[in-house]
Amino acid sequence: MKSLFKSKPRTPVEVVRQTRELLVFVDSNPEVRESKREEKMADLYKNLREMKSILYGNSESEPLSEPCAQLTQEFFRENTLRLLIICLPKLNLEARKDATQIVANLQRQQVHSRLIASDYLEKNFDLIDILVAGYENTDMALHYGAMLRDCIRHQSVARYVLEAAHVKKFFDYIQLPNFDIAADAAATFKELMTRHKSTVAEFLSRNYDWFFAEYNSKLLESSNYITRRQATKLLGDILLDRSNSSVMMRYVSSKDNLRILMNLLRESSKSIQMEAFHVFKLFAANQNKPADIVKLLVTNRSKLLRFLTDFKSEKGWNYKLPSSSIQIRRSVLLVIKCCPCSFRGRAVRSRQSPSYERDCISRAEVTNAIQNSELLFCTEMMLQL
């Protein structure tokens, strides 16, 4: 008889509506008696778990597209996202984690082939202001940071963060004393500067001077090892992207930038040396070096050649360089013949090569050949100065 009176499962729309009502209660009733508040909060936590189950599935079933679409449409029909972000500090830790995962999933949900999360955020950019400022709250930084990274998936949001001068704040957030928060801010900054290539290229072209002045002084010359390592790696990713070719040419024409990279090559860390080398080779490869760049390279020619000769990476790269320019050129040609590749691009074994079938080389050998060719190339450029 008990099963006859079992309650009917709620629809995704009903779950979202009740969640919204509970969030309104939490946000607007700070002085309600404790027992009633605990009851409402328990219902809210239950609803968040149920929404998460609908979007992600559970141990017994995979998520279904129709319930997910219904939940997404109702979630963004009114201000449920706004209420969830505002009320997040009032939730317990597990509920915050659930809310963060819900927001992340909803950014990818399509309704009638549209990302309605993007449409909603375009009309509510002030929510992005709250998420960015969340890095200043130790308790909320990781939750708001995760939400922000998922929102940056939308190009309109990334453009807003860049154009609203929020990006300037990241130079300070990345250096926060709390390691976890600083690392999270660095991950968000990397996502912001690499995901939407056309938007980033446009931003860097218009804001080159102040952006790289901040980048060099606060990140590349930071006293923090982790910050320097991450910043050097990201700089290489930015400059080596084809979308940023004009920015790259401008960067490698600066004597001050070269001086910073040469100092990074002197780091005791092999990781930083390797990432700095990937940027330094752009200076060496520039066929139109300004006079002050050439002068600086010539002044430090012997030191750079000694460094390139003895350079070893933490991955076990230990290649003894030939001493003459002719030998270097032959070695480069040999590497290119065996392993045609773009400059730090992905190696592609030529199928027209007569020895393709019998001389296929391993991925490790390909990587080593690319690295050796780059090192040889830079050394030849130095010998020609």
Automatic annotation (TrEMBL):
Superkingdom classification of source: Eukaryota
The UniProt GO MF terms for this protein read:
protein serine/threonine kinase activator activity
Which InterPro entries does the record cross-reference, listed alphabetically? ARM-like, ARM-type_fold, Mo25
The record's listing under SUPFAM superfamilies reads:
ARM repeat
Query: What's one GO BP annotation on this UniProt entry?
Result: intracellular signal transduction
Entry-linked PANTHER family: CALCIUM-BINDING PROTEIN 39-RELATED (PTHR10182), OS07G0585100 PROTEIN (PTHR10182:SF12)
Q: Which family does it belong to?
A: Belongs to the Mo25 family.
Q: What is this protein called?
A: MO25-like protein At5g47540 isoform X1
What species was this sequence derived from?
Punica granatum
